[in-house]
Amino acid sequence: MLKRTISSIFLSNVTNHRLFSLSATSYRKIPEYSHELNNRHRPFGKFHPRSPSFQNQMQQIHNMNKQEDNLDDIKPQFNKYKVTRSQSKISSNMKTIEDDNDNDLFSEEKDDLTMLGTDKKALSSTMSSQRPTSSAISLTKKTNNLNIPLEVLIQSDLRDLYTDEDIHQSLELHINEIYPALRPFTFDLAYLINESETLKRFVEMGVDIYRWNQPNIKAKYVLTLNFERDCVQHLVFLNEIGIKNKSLAQFLSYNPWIFKETIDDLRVRINYLESKGFNPENIRDMTLRAPFLLNLSTKTLDTKLHWFRKKFHLTEQDSHEFVLRAPKLLTLPLQDISDTYFKMKTHLGFESTDLTRIFNQYPKLFIYDYKLIELNFDFLYNEMNISRQRLLDYPPILKQSFQQLRTRCLYLKYIKRQQFDPTKPNFVSLKDLCMKTNELFCQYVTKTTSEHYLNFMKTL
Prior knowledge:
Blueprint: H1 2-26, H2 34-38, H3 52-71, E1 85-86, H4 107-113, E2 136-141, E3 144-149, H5 151-154, H6 165-182, H7 197-205, H8 216-223, H9 227-240, H10 245-254, H11 263-275, H12 280-289, H13 298-312, H14 316-325, H15 334-346, H16 352-361, H17 370-383, H18 388-393, H19 402-414, H20 438-446, H21 450-458
Parallel strand pairs: 1-2
Antiparallel strand pairs: 2-3
């Protein structure tokens, strides 16, 4: 009983205290400027973001900046996705365009792109009082402002929507100015065929000019050529040595640098090859298979021939035969061939005599990447247990597609026909593994159907 009375007295005191505090706060007067009361304990209250003094200062600074921006003339800016222009009134006689070197952001790229003597100030823009906000061209005509979208520049069919002749003249003016900026970083020569008579003549001849797009330096050089001045004499010379019609178009598709060489130098190189025992038919065939052969000076050709004789211990007859079989070796860097020779000798375990034998049998092997040679050798030697001596019998096996070679060897192992020893029955030669198609491989080597072979390939 005593505990209950004590607890009730304590609760009544607590509730009375709460009611008193609430009534005291309700009758308290709130000052007129509550922020002053809140900021009295803050020594730096005037710098608080919510203080009125700070907000007034920021508003004054903003107004001053806005006034300064209105006084400045804002120039339109270009980027590689949007081209925006704002120009003053254009009369029917079309005023000349003022040059502005500081605003031409693509002057160097345009020179690199065309190299046809185009105006370096084609992208210069006039001063405007408003900042452009849309990708459109603003044309002013008789106090009527027209915003022409960029799609009209790219699609000529949309220009028929504008019937006014003055607008068409203004559009042509802007198209001529902005055309290089529409594709400022592209080297696709297809866009310049209509502007270059030289490219038109090459297309009519059947030359694949898309091969000249990369590297960019090749495209730049081609655009500097004049067909009558720089190309006609070289075309006549190539016809004289037997490169005509489709062969001529194929040759020029890979080697437009031939126009850099003088006719006298080309005749000297032909005479040098004839002095080495090559007849005109051989020279024509070598030139078609190695288009850059005639770009090498006689001194370079003689140095490379001497290097091959010394490296592979070749005779005059051997060097003559390897040039006929693989003329492209003369156009490759000697360092690459030397690296392949060194790695095959040290990493794969071939002797110098073995490498000379490989070179005499199949010199094209040294054109291929060493990584492919090493991959095929590792699989045949370690997985299929084929000796080096057997590989010397047919060196082209080392340049085959690794995926195709591995699949065929595993298939022979699956049907228990992996017999590569010529002294035993059911012998499979290395040449059989290099057949062109899977149908021929199944028909003449495995004696199975192509579907069975394809089903096995799905299990790998």
